[in-house]
Amino acid sequence: MENKRKKPILLTAFGGNALIRSGQKGTAEEQFENLNLPMRQIARLSMKYTVVITHGNGPQVGNLLLQQESCDEVPKMPLEIIGAQTQGQIGYMIESSLETALMESGINSEQYFATLITYVVVDENDPAFQQPTKPIGPFYTEEEAIALANETNFGLASALWTENVSRAHRVADKIEAGIVWVNCWFLRDLRTPFGGSKQSGIGRE
Predict the structure, then answer these.
(1) Is 0.70 topped by the overall pTM?
(2) Could you tell me which of 21, 51, 95, 160 has the fewest CB atoms within 10 Å of its CB?
(3) Residue 160: which H helix or E strand, with range?
Protein backbone atom coordinates (compact mmCIF):
# COMPACT_ATOMS: atom_id res chain seq x y z
CA MET A 1 0.00 0.00 0.00
CA GLU A 2 1.40 3.34 -1.03
CA ASN A 3 2.35 5.60 1.87
CA LYS A 4 0.87 9.03 1.69
CA ARG A 5 2.39 11.99 3.43
CA LYS A 6 0.10 12.92 6.28
CA LYS A 7 -0.54 16.47 7.36
CA PRO A 8 0.43 17.35 10.94
CA ILE A 9 -2.39 17.34 13.45
CA LEU A 10 -3.54 20.65 14.94
CA LEU A 11 -5.66 20.45 18.09
CA THR A 12 -7.96 23.41 18.80
CA ALA A 13 -10.14 23.82 21.87
CA PHE A 14 -13.16 26.07 22.28
CA GLY A 15 -14.72 26.94 25.59
CA GLY A 16 -18.49 27.23 25.55
CA ASN A 17 -18.04 30.94 26.22
CA ALA A 18 -16.44 31.29 22.77
CA LEU A 19 -19.97 30.99 21.40
CA ILE A 20 -21.66 33.35 23.87
CA ARG A 21 -20.17 36.78 24.44
CA SER A 22 -20.66 39.02 27.44
CA GLY A 23 -24.06 40.69 27.42
CA GLN A 24 -25.60 38.28 24.92
CA LYS A 25 -28.64 36.07 25.53
CA GLY A 26 -27.17 33.00 23.87
CA THR A 27 -29.59 32.75 20.94
CA ALA A 28 -28.77 30.39 18.07
CA GLU A 29 -28.21 33.39 15.78
CA GLU A 30 -25.69 34.92 18.20
CA GLN A 31 -23.79 31.67 18.60
CA PHE A 32 -23.57 31.06 14.85
CA GLU A 33 -22.38 34.65 14.35
CA ASN A 34 -19.68 34.23 16.98
CA LEU A 35 -18.45 31.07 15.24
CA ASN A 36 -17.97 32.75 11.86
CA LEU A 37 -14.51 34.22 12.50
CA PRO A 38 -12.84 31.22 14.18
CA MET A 39 -14.28 28.80 11.61
CA ARG A 40 -12.92 30.90 8.73
CA GLN A 41 -9.51 30.80 10.40
CA ILE A 42 -9.72 27.05 10.93
CA ALA A 43 -10.79 26.56 7.30
CA ARG A 44 -7.54 28.19 6.18
CA LEU A 45 -5.50 26.13 8.62
CA SER A 46 -7.09 22.92 7.34
CA MET A 47 -5.15 23.29 4.10
CA LYS A 48 -1.92 22.58 6.00
CA TYR A 49 -3.15 20.61 9.00
CA THR A 50 -5.54 17.87 9.98
CA VAL A 51 -7.63 19.86 12.44
CA VAL A 52 -9.12 18.29 15.56
CA ILE A 53 -11.69 20.45 17.37
CA THR A 54 -12.78 19.90 20.95
CA HIS A 55 -15.13 22.13 22.90
CA GLY A 56 -16.73 22.83 26.24
CA ASN A 57 -20.36 23.65 26.93
CA GLY A 58 -20.67 25.31 30.36
CA PRO A 59 -22.70 28.41 29.37
CA GLN A 60 -24.92 26.34 27.08
CA VAL A 61 -25.77 23.96 29.93
CA GLY A 62 -26.72 26.95 32.09
CA ASN A 63 -28.80 28.40 29.26
CA LEU A 64 -30.73 25.15 28.82
CA LEU A 65 -31.26 24.82 32.57
CA LEU A 66 -32.73 28.33 32.64
CA GLN A 67 -35.07 27.42 29.78
CA GLN A 68 -36.31 24.37 31.68
CA GLU A 69 -36.83 26.34 34.88
CA SER A 70 -38.99 28.90 33.04
CA CYS A 71 -41.45 26.37 31.64
CA ASP A 72 -43.40 24.10 33.98
CA GLU A 73 -45.01 22.14 31.13
CA VAL A 74 -41.74 20.78 29.72
CA PRO A 75 -40.41 17.57 31.35
CA LYS A 76 -37.10 18.37 33.01
CA MET A 77 -33.98 16.44 32.09
CA PRO A 78 -31.13 15.47 34.45
CA LEU A 79 -27.84 17.35 34.19
CA GLU A 80 -26.01 14.59 32.31
CA ILE A 81 -28.70 14.60 29.59
CA ILE A 82 -28.51 18.39 29.34
CA GLY A 83 -24.74 18.09 29.01
CA ALA A 84 -25.14 15.62 26.14
CA GLN A 85 -27.77 17.78 24.44
CA THR A 86 -25.60 20.89 24.51
CA GLN A 87 -22.47 19.01 23.38
CA GLY A 88 -24.38 17.76 20.36
CA GLN A 89 -25.77 21.24 19.70
CA ILE A 90 -22.33 22.86 19.74
CA GLY A 91 -20.87 20.07 17.59
CA TYR A 92 -23.55 20.67 14.98
CA MET A 93 -22.99 24.44 15.05
CA ILE A 94 -19.22 24.07 14.65
CA GLU A 95 -19.56 21.55 11.81
CA SER A 96 -22.17 23.63 9.99
CA SER A 97 -20.19 26.87 10.34
CA LEU A 98 -16.92 25.20 9.33
CA GLU A 99 -18.52 23.61 6.27
CA THR A 100 -19.69 27.06 5.14
CA ALA A 101 -16.24 28.55 5.75
CA LEU A 102 -14.57 25.74 3.78
CA MET A 103 -16.86 26.24 0.80
CA GLU A 104 -16.29 30.00 0.90
CA SER A 105 -12.54 29.31 0.86
CA GLY A 106 -12.89 27.10 -2.21
CA ILE A 107 -12.13 23.91 -0.29
CA ASN A 108 -14.33 20.92 -1.07
CA SER A 109 -15.87 19.94 2.26
CA GLU A 110 -17.42 16.67 1.05
CA GLN A 111 -16.25 13.72 3.14
CA TYR A 112 -14.21 16.19 5.17
CA PHE A 113 -15.64 15.62 8.64
CA ALA A 114 -15.38 12.85 11.17
CA THR A 115 -17.58 13.67 14.17
CA LEU A 116 -16.90 11.72 17.37
CA ILE A 117 -19.12 11.45 20.41
CA THR A 118 -17.15 10.68 23.55
CA TYR A 119 -18.38 9.31 26.84
CA VAL A 120 -16.37 10.17 29.93
CA VAL A 121 -16.66 7.95 32.99
CA VAL A 122 -16.15 10.07 36.11
CA ASP A 123 -15.04 8.64 39.43
CA GLU A 124 -17.50 9.69 42.11
CA ASN A 125 -14.60 9.86 44.57
CA ASP A 126 -12.63 12.31 42.43
CA PRO A 127 -11.31 14.99 44.86
CA ALA A 128 -12.14 17.67 42.26
CA PHE A 129 -15.79 17.33 43.29
CA GLN A 130 -14.90 18.59 46.76
CA GLN A 131 -13.90 21.98 45.41
CA PRO A 132 -15.50 22.70 42.03
CA THR A 133 -14.04 25.67 40.18
CA LYS A 134 -16.26 26.10 37.11
CA PRO A 135 -19.76 27.60 37.42
CA ILE A 136 -22.58 26.45 35.16
CA GLY A 137 -24.57 29.40 33.88
CA PRO A 138 -24.10 33.14 33.44
CA PHE A 139 -21.21 34.91 35.16
CA TYR A 140 -21.80 38.27 36.84
CA THR A 141 -19.41 40.78 38.33
CA GLU A 142 -19.76 41.52 42.02
CA GLU A 143 -21.61 44.76 41.29
CA GLU A 144 -23.99 43.05 38.83
CA ALA A 145 -24.73 40.25 41.29
CA ILE A 146 -25.57 42.71 44.07
CA ALA A 147 -27.80 44.74 41.74
CA LEU A 148 -29.67 41.62 40.59
CA ALA A 149 -30.12 40.41 44.17
CA ASN A 150 -31.60 43.77 45.18
CA GLU A 151 -33.95 44.12 42.17
CA THR A 152 -36.67 42.11 43.87
CA ASN A 153 -39.34 43.71 46.06
CA PHE A 154 -38.71 41.09 48.71
CA GLY A 155 -35.82 40.57 51.08
CA LEU A 156 -36.41 37.90 53.69
CA ALA A 157 -33.21 35.90 53.20
CA SER A 158 -30.33 35.37 50.79
CA ALA A 159 -27.17 33.32 50.49
CA LEU A 160 -23.77 33.76 48.86
CA TRP A 161 -20.85 31.42 48.25
CA THR A 162 -17.25 32.59 48.24
CA GLU A 163 -13.78 31.62 49.46
CA ASN A 164 -12.94 35.27 50.16
CA VAL A 165 -13.86 36.43 53.66
CA SER A 166 -13.53 40.12 52.77
CA ARG A 167 -15.86 39.68 49.80
CA ALA A 168 -18.36 37.81 51.99
CA HIS A 169 -18.58 40.73 54.43
CA ARG A 170 -18.59 43.33 51.65
CA VAL A 171 -21.35 41.72 49.59
CA ALA A 172 -23.46 40.68 52.58
CA ASP A 173 -23.44 44.29 53.79
CA LYS A 174 -24.86 45.47 50.44
CA ILE A 175 -27.61 42.86 50.00
CA GLU A 176 -31.02 44.14 51.08
CA ALA A 177 -32.22 41.13 53.04
CA GLY A 178 -32.97 40.31 56.64
CA ILE A 179 -30.64 37.31 56.64
CA VAL A 180 -27.55 36.66 54.53
CA TRP A 181 -26.07 33.17 54.78
CA VAL A 182 -22.47 32.62 53.70
CA ASN A 183 -21.52 29.24 52.18
CA CYS A 184 -24.61 27.61 53.64
CA TRP A 185 -28.39 27.84 53.62
CA PHE A 186 -31.12 27.85 56.25
CA LEU A 187 -28.87 27.42 59.26
CA ARG A 188 -30.16 29.55 62.12
CA ASP A 189 -30.80 29.82 65.82
CA LEU A 190 -34.45 30.65 66.42
CA ARG A 191 -33.49 32.36 69.66
CA THR A 192 -31.86 35.08 67.55
CA PRO A 193 -34.13 37.93 66.34
CA PHE A 194 -34.75 37.80 62.61
CA GLY A 195 -36.93 39.46 59.99
CA GLY A 196 -37.01 40.73 56.44
CA SER A 197 -36.75 43.93 54.46
CA LYS A 198 -38.92 45.64 51.83
CA GLN A 199 -42.12 43.62 51.31
CA SER A 200 -40.83 40.69 53.35
CA GLY A 201 -41.87 42.27 56.63
CA ILE A 202 -40.96 45.07 58.96
CA GLY A 203 -39.16 44.74 62.25
CA ARG A 204 -37.71 41.75 64.05
CA GLU A 205 -39.25 38.93 65.99
Answers:
(1) no
(2) 21
(3) strand 157-160
